[in-house]
Amino acid sequence: MKQKPKDLFIILFIYLLALAAAVLTLKYAPITNILWKTALADFVAMVVVFIFSMIYKNSSVYDPFWSAAPIFIIFYWLFQIGETNFLFKAIWALVILWGVRLTWNWILRWDGMKDEDWRYKLIRKKTGKMYWPASFLAIHLLPTALVFAGLVPVYYTFHSDISLFNSWVALIPFMFTLSAIMLEKTADDELRNHIESKDGKKYKIQTPSWTLLKYPNYLGEVGFWWGLFLFAVAVDKTQWWVVFGPVSITLLFLFISIPMMKKHLASKIYK
Fold first, then answer.
1. Engineered SS bond to 112: which of 7, 17, 62, 102, CB 3.0-4.6 Å?
2. Among residues of the chain, what percentage have pLDDT more than 90?
3. In this structure, which long-range contacts are made by residues 113-122, counting pairs with CB atoms below 8 Å and at least 24 apart in sequence?
4. How far apart are CA 265 and CA 270, in angstroms?
C-alpha cells in the first residue's frame, strides 16, 4: 500500500476522534444555548486535530477541518430543529456540495504527511521555537472561529419564523451560492491541472477563469459565505447584523491569504 492512502486513513481516524470528542461535548456540556454549545464542540474538535498536527509535525493535518466541520455543524442544528422544510434542506445540500468538493480537492493535491502547506512552512521559518503556539492561534484557532462566524447566518436562518416567507425569494441566494461553488470548483480544477502539467512550473496559468478574474478560487470561496448570509436576510431582513460572518472571512482573504499568495507568486520565475 502506498504512503498517501495510509496517511489519508490516519487523517480519517484523526477526524473521527475529533467528531467523537465534539459529540461528547454536545451531549455533556452544561450549556443550554445551542449556538454556544456548538461553538464549544467545534473548538474541542479543533484541539484534537491540533494535537495530531503536533504529533505528526504537520499543520496541514488541520486543512480538511475548514470544509468538513460545517457539514456536521449544520446537521446538528437541523437535528435540533426536528422538523425541517425544503429551504433548510437546500442550504444543507449546498454546504455538503461545497464541503465535499473542497475536501476532495484537498485530497487530490495533498501528498501525505510529508506534504505541508507552503504558508505553514513560511510561518514555521518566521516563528522558530514559537511555531506551535503560532500554529494553534493562526492556523487552527483563527480559521475555526472565522468559519463558525460564517455559519452563524445559517443558525439564525434555521431559527427564523418562515411562515410568511416567499420560497421563490430563496432562489436568489441559492443560485448565488451555487454559482460561487461552481466558480471555485472550476478555478481549483484549472489550477490543479496546470500545476500537474509539464509546464506548470514554467508558465503562469492562462485558463479562462484565471485570465478573466484575479484569484477566482478565493472569489468563489468568499462568495459561498456571502451566499449563506443572503439566505438569512432573505428570510428576515432584521438579521442583517450577522453580516460579520462573511465580512470576517472576506477580510481574511483580503489581508492575509491574497497578500501571502502575491508574495509567493512574486518569488517564482515564469517565462
1. 7
2. 83
3. 113/3, 113/7, 113/10, 113/56, 113/58, 113/61, 114/3, 115/58, 115/60, 116/58, 116/59, 116/60, 117/59, 117/60, 117/63, 118/264, 119/260, 119/264, 120/59, 120/60, 122/260
4. 9
Tell me what pLDDT residue 168 has. Answer: 83
Question: What gap in Å lies between CA 265 and CA 137, rounded to an integer?
Answer: 25
Closest residue by Cα to residue 78 from 172, 161, 159 = 159
| Contact indicator for 230, 170 with CB cutoff of 8 Å | no
CA distance linking residue 189 with residue 248, whole number of Å: 26
Name the residue with cell 454556544: 36
* Residue 109: other Cβ atoms inside 10 A: 15
Q: Say how far apart CA 52 and CA 62 lie, in whole Å.
A: 9
Residue with C-alpha cell 491541472?
Answer: 193
Phi first, then psi: what are they for 114, rounded to 5°? -80, -10
Mean pLDDT of 15-38: 98
